[in-house]
Specification:
By secondary structure, the chain is an alpha/beta fold. About 40% of the residues lie in helices and about 15% in strands. The chain has a 5-stranded mixed β-sheet with strand order 11-10-12-9-13, sandwiched between helices. The chain has a 3-stranded parallel β-sheet with strand order 5-1-6. The N terminus is likely disordered.
Length: about 375
């Protein structure tokens, strides 16, 4: 070995000793310090969104937080007794029943149209069930996923009966009230442009202010989902003086929305909805569910009610989760009729919201 090679070997040996003297630790020390330095500058963590995180948080808290409307009779409304009631409210109760076996383990968080998506994104609520229309943009840009539609709706107009307004063309030259921050406003402008109708669009952040303006005559028409028109018409001073026009200008599929990132939670809310559909299809109601559970030999109904198949465990719930939904809240027909049926002030014929076997769009995948 030459003298030069000996020098190289000696230098390498000295370098190795120097690193060993640092405990191999120069790099190791930096590796343990770097995350701490990064953590000091990171923004506070948002809501947990990993698989199973939402159910775990809800169970630890002991109740569900459901974002709702409080001003739409029949769907989400705070009644004179200070109690929440309505079609959407019942679906909140159904999710609570599936998780806890108790439909009352839910806190209702009233939200405006402007607040609702932020509340879901930030974890203020666990699920949004508030007459919200499913669109591609909302499915991709606001941090949420829509589960199956619970109510198929469409946008319409309410006018005074003595106004002479009966068709879209009759809206030319009128003032139309609409709530901003909704699909309704965008739909209205599209319809007016497409039909060459020149009307003044009067927007309001607050739904109450918009309806007050309509009732005071500052607007000739008010536009929103037809379900909302039916509901709010009951709150006008003289409901019989107003009519909902026989025109529908959009598709408005309404249903629950959950945060992106937790497929288990998505599945739970999704299958709670399907359980109400299938229970109606199978003739299982809150009144006969105990009898059916004791006597049925139908394998799909037995799976629904937790008698076989361990379907609840696959969702992270008890196997009697759907039994609890039906027992405490009811099937879809019971929920619908309780809030929107012919014996209510907010009656809306079921139409598309009928089972597929009756010409509607409600169809539950197999419980197997």
């Amino acid at each position: 070995m030459t003298r030069k090679m000996w020098l190289v070997v000696a230098l390498l040996a000295l370098l190795a000793l120097a690193l060993a003297a640092c405990g191999g630790g120069g790099q190791a020390a930096e590796a343990t310090q770097a995350p701490a330095e990064e953590a000091a500058t990171e923004e506070p963590a948002g809501p947990a969104t990993g698989y199973g995180s939402t159910l775990a948080a809800v169970k630890e808290r002991g109740y569900l937080i459901c974002g709702v409307n409080s001003k739409v009779p029949g769907f989400g409304f705070l009644n004179e007794a200070g109690e929440y009631e309505g079609f959407d409210i019942d679906f909140c109760r159904a999710v609570a029943a599936a998780i806890f076996g108790d439909p009352n383990k839910v806190e209702f968080r009233p939200l405006s149209a402007k607040e609702r998506f932020t509340a879901l994104q930030t974890g203020e609520i666990d699920v949004l069930i508030r007459n919200t229309t499913w669109t591609l943009t909302r499915d991709t840009e606001v941090g949420g996923n829509f589960v199956h539609t619970t109510f198929y709706d469409g946008q319409g107009f309410i006018v005074r009966k003595d106004s002479g307004i009966e068709t879209l063309e009759d809206l030319d030259g009128t003032a139309i009230c609409v709530q901003t921050g909704t699909t309704t406003e965008a739909n209205l402008r599209d319809v007016l442009d497409a039909n060459g109708i020149e009307a003044e669009v009067v927007v309001f952040d607050d739904v109450e202010a918009g309806w007050a303006a309509y009732e005071e005559g500052r607007c000739d028409a008010y536009t929103t989902d037809k379900s909302g028109l039916v509901a709010r018409r009951t709150m006008l001073k003289n409901p019989d003086e107003h009519m909902i026009m026989d025109v529908t200008v959009s598709k408005e599929p309404l249903g629950p929305m959950v945060r992106h990132g937790d497929d288990q939670w998505f599945d739970i809310v999704q299958w709670v909805v399907f359980a109400t559909f299938y229970a109606e299809e199978a003739g299982v109601t809150s009144e006969n569910v105990d009898q059916v559970r004791d006597t049925t030999t139908n394998p799909r109904v037995r799976s629904l009610l937790g008698l076989e198949g361990d379907l609840g465990k696959k969702l992270g719930l008890d196997n009697d989760w759907a039994y609890n939904v039906i027992k405490h809240v009811g099937n879809y027909a019971e929920i619908y009729n309780r809030n929107l049926g012919p014996d209510t002030p907010t009656y809306i014929p079921r139409g598309l919201n009928s089972l597929y076997t009756e010409g509607g769009l409600l169809y539950a995948p197999p419980f197997r």
